[in-house]
Amino acid sequence: MATETLAPDAVLVGTNYTTLNIGDVDEDPAASDGSWGAWDGNGNTIASVSFPTPTGAPTAGATQTFRVLVRKTPLVTNPATTWSLQLYEGGSLVATLATGTTAALDPGEVISGTWDAASLSTADGSAVECRLVQTAGGTGGTRRGIEVGAFAWDVVYSATNNYTITGAVTAALAVAAALAFNSHPQIAGAVTTTLTPAATVTYNRHAAVDGAVGVSLTPAATLIYNRHAALTGSVAVALTPAATMQYAVGGAEIAGAVTVELNPAGTMAWNQHPATTGTLEAVLTPAASLQYQRHPALSGAVNATLTPAATMVYNRHTAINGGLSLDFNVAAAMTYTGANSTMPPIRFHLHLGLSL
Amino acid sequence: MAGFVPNEGEAAIANLVCKRVLTDRDADLELGLFTNVAPDETMTHAALTEPTGTGYARITLTDASWTGAADARAYAQQTFTGGAGGWTGSVQGYFINTKAAGGTKRLLFIEIDAAGPYTINENDTYKITPNVTVA
Fold this sequence. Notes:
The complex is a heterodimer. By secondary structure, chain A is mostly beta strands.
């Protein structure tokens, strides 16, 4: 519990007073400022004041105290002047706290009365009023009045604490996903690859490819191209090495069309080995010697244009079931060896710079 | 000290955001006071202790009433007031938890009041303005 002393904040009633200003009665009764409400010389006085709301609700069961500084007006005769100190709430009498008789002239005396907050209707004390009623003062020309010089309410209240906190919660999110990217096997779509190495390149192609493949290889020097495994789509390969080239189609079947355009700057060795069932379009234009060797069965048509700048050796073996059209443009010597049977017609177009 | 998200809250957020698990996150949240001393990351809703006494009850934080933008959200100040006889237990701070109609309430946020602890007597007030930042 805590205590405080409240001064009145308004005069509510000032009966039979000439003047009763709040400034006259708002100091502590124990330390009067010397100002008083002034009796008007008529009947018994009544003075009532209100108070501000206490800091905390008046504590029930504890002692609340009103203190009032009073005096009687200084007439020659001395009739008894009696008073009644009362607790009001919102304009209604709650209780008479004390009664008495004062004979005090200036500077007066402090009277008091106590009460319990349990008797209040408004628990926070905001409606509390203190009223001093003069109950007797003589009659006629000897009448005296009771005047008030100060009111105070000694409040006992329940102390309250007001705590506040402005929240500051931080939620930290962290994301750290492991990343692994491995792209291995089958390719179902088209693939276009352009490789331009500065020196030797080895190109190895494995596994199945269901779509078209376009490969353009332009190494500055030697190129080795190895092609394996099955290929069901078409293949267009343009190989233009600056120097020596070795092209080997080995391993397995090619079911689709193959177009090969090889333009090596120097010597070229072209070896085509196993079965080819599709059409083969080959344009071979090496800048120097060309050695073309074709071995086993070929069931599709072959259209080959061979234009070596120098010596050419052409070796052809085994059976060919499709048409064969060879266009030789030999700038120098050429050796042709035909072996085994050939079923369809074969057309040779020879354009020789020297002799066959 | 600044408030934090305990492990239970982290799990609840991860389930809610990544897996859209709503079992433990019914409509609205709750604001309450705790009396545990120095709770840490391992604190759970089930382990919370709260003051007892007239007038103490968790306060519902309505989903739609959160304000803010970007990565910060705030809620209007909420007031706890001690009733007759005050409360038993020293208040160490506040927490916010989920409401779960069919699941389990989860402790989302908790903040120790550096100015505490407080003993809440009759008519004492404890006012909290929730703020959450996701960084």
